[in-house]
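Fold this: 3-oxoacyl-[acyl-carrier-protein] reductase FabG
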Amino acid sequence: MSFDLQLQGLRALVTGGTKGVGFAVVQRLHEAGAQVMATARSAPSTPTEGVSFVAADLATAAGAADVAQAVLERWGGVDILVNVVGGSSAPGGGFAALDDAQWYRELNQNLMPAVRLDRALLPAMLARGSGVIIHVSSIQRLLPLPESTTAYAAAKAALSTYSKALSKEVTPRGVRVLRVSPGWIETDAAIALAERVATQAGTDYEGGKQIIMRSLGGIPLGRPAKPQEVADLITFLVSPRAGSISGSEHVIDGGTIPTV
Ligand SMILES: NC(=O)c1ccc[n+]([C@@H]2O[C@H](COP(=O)([O-])OP(=O)(O)OC[C@H]3O[C@@H](n4cnc5c(N)ncnc54)[C@H](OP(=O)(O)O)[C@@H]3O)[C@@H](O)[C@H]2O)c1
């Protein structure tokens, strides 16, 4: 028996769609037959045939408005909005290293892109009475690492709470809203970090990974998730197969969160 995800022809916008998790989501949705638009600041090094791309800085209101306009002009709306963009550039040093500019940077990178794009693209979903929105959060909303990710973790917590509120508001009107919270993911950036850690500690790549995993309190599975594994979860959640799932958080962390 085949397991068709029933994504053929659906219109999907994926933010942060050129690297890491976002790139993997773009590939999965495209393979599944969806029409896909990816966005990021720079075009992908190898464009995928059949996937459109819009360049914009989503940390700004103008960038979010440009992306929404491109989507509305091209398609009139989307069936699927995957808010992947996020990350942290905050320095180490705990609370004292975080001035107002750093705090706003983390909020503009992790909370406001989704708030602005949802606000622009939800009206067409509500008018149709269908759609699905994913917010990629992080287990750090529950497990903040105070040395360097206090502001990032707080921004992801805000994103998660916003996502839940939105799901309560719009699920009765046909739009599903979900959170996906990964633990450590072996993206290209993570590989580069593990290599740097390994060099500093005089060990190999696997040794570098072990050091990072220990700093997270350990990963019972013994390895980070692959971007494609996170993309598989998201691809299922946005599909009509997951039509009765809304308002929930889906953790993909190999068991990192130590509590129930
Ligand atoms: N990696 C992890 O271990 C991990 C763990 C938990 C949660 N997460 C979350 O998962 C999501 C994806 O993370 P990732 O590690 O896969 O990301 P990544 O590899 O760093 O890729 C980030 C993507 O977002 C784009 N981007 C970054 N800043 C942008 C901006 N201001 N405007 C528009 N696009 C921007 C990047 O392209 P440009 O640079 O060209 O703009 C790229 O396509 C994030 O929300 C992250 O917080 C990641």
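The mean pLDDT is 97. The chain has two domains: 11-185+226-252, 186-224.
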